[in-house]
Amino acid sequence: MLDAREAAGRAHRAEWARIVAALTRRFGDLDTAEEATAEAFATAVERWPADGVPANPGAWLTTTATRKAIDRIRRENRRDDKQQEAGVVYDDDPPEPDAIGDERLRLIFTCAHPALATQTRVALTLRMVGGLTVPEISRALLVREAATGQRITRAKAKIKAARIPYRVPRADELPARVSGVLAVLFLIFNEGYLATGPGTDPVRPGLTAEAIRLTRLIRALMPEDGEVAGLLALMLLTEARRTARVSASGELVALAEQDRASWDAALTAEGHRLVRERLDSGLAPGRYQILAAINAVHTSARDIRETDWSQILALYDQLVRLDRSPIVALNRAIALGELHGPEPALEVVDGLRDGLADYHAYHATRADLLRRLGLAQESRVAYDKAIELAGNTAEIAYLTRRRDQLG
């Protein structure tokens, strides 16, 4: 039974977005696609332990989901209406010469349509493409679960009412559309890189791989776009370290303690090449390009002691002019602490409390700075709060060990 449930979990990670996209393409309705896909996976969890895992789980799930969708349409006695709606959003036109016929890419551009508010686009795409649950999305966006659920429901209704087309935008539409898509892909990647769900694996390589794959497709559509290249470089340089980030006992391994020889050399080299290409262009970098450059500095050092923290701090100084979010300020404070010591860094971090009080990394950063200052009791309190808020099992194990080392 355990093997069948594990197979269903693996299939969910690998097939969710593809099945939702295929059903959206066929039936032209996000609600129908999502609910039928969810029902198919529920059926798999129920039947596979008794019947055995099918030879092709993806095909089995797609067939089952399609039948569920048809049954749902028939139950609602709205088949003609659904078919008419499908005819409106189904893209029968031949693709543009530079378009890529990938259903998941179509789904992303539909969910990230500019008719929707930015946070709504992100929540909907994380659900429909990433397959994340409402609690996982809420943690990723630092919002309440009720608000996330409402955003997703309203977004699907608006797509339906506004007859937003299910297609990759034309070449002339891409520049105005791509920033929202990149933001979503970055969040999908982050959820895979450091999963927030308490019942999930600490790292979800299926999500990181899908985010990288889709970003490569967008780069093929927009090869000259610096931010697309920057995001791809950022993902590659981060993914290169994945196998070194969790120990055999399931604990997060901090960057300073990672075995750098185990980093993926090919991904690192490709990421560095993309960063150099953007630097050589002479164009002012955007947010993702700066983040990629920061990661390039980290991955260029053979040892943590060789890290050029002054360059990293200078890059963060550049980034805060583009992105004034408290999370960027928090990361800058970490670099400040490495370069100038924990005291000035703690002063900056304490000033960010109002915006990050519910963010576990804020308290983890503060705990480490307090530890370095010899303030063990205050550090313990901060570690306790970080552990309470963290959703990643490997990170919780790491924070717990660090707290317990205080004595």
UniProtKB/TrEMBL annotation:
Keywords: Sigma factor, Transcription, Transcription regulation. Residues 177-277 form the DUF6596 domain. The keyword Transcription regulation applies. Residues 108-159 form the RNA polymerase sigma factor 70 region 4 type domain. Gene3D superfamilies: 1.10.1740.10, Tetratricopeptide repeat domain, Winged helix-like DNA-binding domain superfamily/Winged helix DNA-binding domain. Residues 18-79 form the RNA polymerase sigma-70 region domain. Residues 74-95 are annotated as: Disordered. One of its GO terms (molecular function) is DNA binding. Belongs to the sigma-70 factor family. ECF subfamily. This is RNA polymerase subunit sigma-24.
